[in-house]
Design goal:
The chain has 7 helices and 13 strands. The protein is an alpha+beta fold. A hairpin with a 2-residue loop joins strand 4 and strand 5. The chain starts with 5 loop residues before the first strand and ends with a strand. The relative contact order is 0.24.
Length: 198
């Protein structure tokens, strides 16, 4: 991770409130996300990664194709060693100053990580929080779904990721190696664990 990279976030109390949750918070969240974007500020990533009192906002996209999920494996070439060799059902990353907000970050991450000759139309699923591990303590996921509907999608950053569309049940083959956010999200999407209504 670049020490000079600036990332968007806000104090933990403003991000998750005084009653933090583990898993997916869902419901009418658009106003809450807009407030978080207004109140957020920039910090150097290296500093933010070491401060559990501050949550970095991370757009996190689940890509589906007529019921299948895009399942990816992170390689050792990725910036965050804590996620090396972990599996994921999410595409995303930090919001940077040039993104003009969360929507811009979604578009940038889509273009950086995936090769898809069409523009995604993200649909909000919810907010993903997990304070039980070092990665989750300093990040808050803004989770969206994108439907490929038969359109082509491939991995662009093949040095950092490999993957393909799989049936949801096939994710269970690597469930014990999913990054924590992906396991929490998978459980919510397929009703293995209930979410928390906002």
């Amino acid at each position: 991770m670049g020490t000079d990279e600036l990332v968007l976030g806000l104090p933990r109390a403003r991000a998750v409130g005084d009653r933090p949750w583990r898993g997916v918070l869902y419901g009418d969240l658009e106003a809450r996300i807009a407030r978080m974007e207004r109140e957020a500020s920039w910090r150097p990533r290296a500093e933010a990664e070491a401060d559990p009192g501050w949550k970095q906002l991370i757009p996190y996209l689940v890509v589906r194709d007529r019921g299948a999920l895009l399942l990816m494996r992170r390689t050792r070439a990725g910036a965050d060693a804590r996620l090396h060799e972990r599996w994921t059902i999410g595409v995303g990353g930090h919001v940077n100053p040039g993104d003009a907000g969360v929507a811009g970050a979604i578009g940038r991450e889509w273009a950086e990580e995936l090769d898809a000759p069409w523009d995604p139309e993200p649909r909000l699923i919810g907010l993903l929080n997990d304070d039980t591990d070092a990665v989750g303590q300093v990040h808050l996921g803004l989770v969206y779904a994108v439907e490929a509907a038969g359109r082509p999608v491939a991995i662009r950053e093949t040095e950092k990721l490999s993957g393909s569309f799989v049936a949801p049940r096939d994710v269970l083959r690597v469930y014990d190696r999913l990054e924590t956010w992906s396991s929490l999200l998978y459980d919510f999407l397929f009703e293995r664990r209930p979410g928390i209504r906002a």
